[in-house]
């Protein structure tokens, strides 16, 4: 009898195309995952940038408000009967809150600083000493400052004129004219970045006198007086703060000869504001204003802005000022 073997099909081998398709699918999934991860990272980055920008904007707005608050306090000071309630323009730090932003505000009468253009050379030399300049370097920098601001091209004994700047590879020479901005001080031969930042808050262009008003001068400026020590200065500042707290006028200074002192007060003030937002952003603003300028400017404002500088580097060894710290009120 004939045996039938049947016609069942033989088993099929897996198609190579199916393996390729699986690999393609896996690659597509990996690519989509990478794109999703990149998109998520970009979204987080943009969100963080937007948050930082918003915090910085809040800080800048609060710093602007701090200047306005200080100007308001200065303008209303003559009408406040109790001197203890007035803001003191002597480097005292006033702390307050604007919205949710903490403000540290320092108001300084420019008459309490050393004028870069007409200030006594020994006061400028004292400031250089307070900022750590060695005696030999101190005299050279002092002479370079004098060469910068005087109208001639004659070199002081240790100073610097155009040839000295050229030999140092600088693309400019001595100005031979008065300082017009504090930033020019950083260009003077021998003045490095650290020295400039140290001097910056103790010098001015708006005192217009050779001496300083000790009633509003900061500790660093008072220490620039010849033949005084830190104990004398600290005792004087304590007496000044005690009198202010009791509503009494500042004590008369006995720190140095009267030729170093001036009785000029105002009308130009510098206002330094450090604003720290709830999110941790810090903005710094320095404004210099002249009060009572409405009649001269004709714009109806009771003050005139002379300079407006943002993003100041921190003052070495200090926060906002070197005076007492108080909570602003009223």
Q: What is the rounded distance between the termini?
A: 123 Å
Order of helices and strands: HEEEHHHHEHHEEHEE
Looking across the biggest beta sheet, what order are the strands in?
Answer: 7-6-5-2-1-8
Mean of all residue-level pLDDT scores: 85
Overall morphology: extended
SS element count, helices: 8
Explain what the structure shows:
The chain has helices at residues 16-76, 121-130, 135-149, 162-167, 193-200, 219-223, 230-245, 294-297; strands spanning 90-98, 101-109, 114-115, 203-204, 268-276, 282-291, 303-310, 325-327. It has 330 residues and is of the alpha/beta class. The protein has three domains: 52-110 and 265-315, GSPII I/J protein-like (Pantoate--beta-alanine Ligase, Chain: A,domain 2, 2-Layer Sandwich), CATH 3.30.1300.30; 118-201, EpsJ-like (Ribonucleotide Reductase Protein R1, domain 1); 210-263, no CATH class. Helix 2 crosses helix 3 (135-149).
List keywords for this structure.
alpha/beta, 8 strands, 8 helices, single chain, Ribonucleotide Reductase Protein R1, domain 1, Pantoate--beta-alanine Ligase, Chain: A,domain 2, 3 domains, two-stranded parallel ribbon
């Amino acid at each position: 009898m004939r045996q039938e073997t049947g016609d069942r099909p033989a088993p099929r081998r897996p198609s190579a195309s199916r393996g390729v398709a699986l690999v393609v699918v896996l690659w597509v999934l990996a690519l989509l995952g990478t794109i999703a991860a990149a998109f998520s990272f970009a979204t987080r980055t943009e969100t963080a940038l937007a948050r930082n920008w918003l915090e910085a904007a809040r800080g800048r707005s609060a710093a602007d408000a701090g200047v306005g608050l200080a100007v308001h306090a200065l303008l209303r000071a003559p009408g406040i009967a109790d001197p203890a309630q007035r803001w003191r323009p002597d480097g005292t730090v006033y702390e307050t809150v604007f919205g949710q932003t903490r403000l540290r505000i320092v108001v300084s009468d420019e008459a309490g600083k050393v004028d870069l253009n007409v200030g006594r050379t020994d006061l400028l030399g004292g400031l250089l000493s307070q900022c750590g300049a060695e005696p030999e370097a101190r005299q050279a920098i002092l002479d370079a400052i004098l060469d910068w601001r005087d109208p001639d091209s004659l070199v002081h004994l240790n100073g610097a004129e155009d040839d000295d700047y050229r030999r140092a590879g600088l693309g400019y020479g001595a100005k031979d004219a008065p300082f017009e901005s504090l930033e020019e001080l950083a260009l003077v031969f021998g003045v490095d970045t650290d020295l400039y930042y140290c001097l910056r808050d103790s010098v001015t262009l708006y005192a217009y006198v050779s001496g300083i008003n000790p009633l509003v001068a900061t500790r660093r400026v008072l220490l620039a007086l010849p033949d005084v020590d830190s104990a004398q200065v600290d005792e004087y500042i304590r007496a000044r703060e005690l009198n202010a707290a009791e509503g009494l006028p500042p004590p008369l200074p006995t720190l140095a000869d009267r030729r170093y002192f001036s009785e000029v007060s105002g009308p130009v003030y510098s206002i330094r504001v450090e604003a720290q937002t709830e999110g941790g952003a810090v903005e710094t603003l320095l404004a210099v204003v002249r009060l009572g300028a409405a009649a001269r400017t004709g714009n109806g404002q009771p003050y005139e802005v002379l300079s407006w500088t943002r993003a100041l580097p921190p003052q070495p060894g200090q926060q906002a000022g070197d005076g007492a710290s108080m909570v602003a009120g009223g």
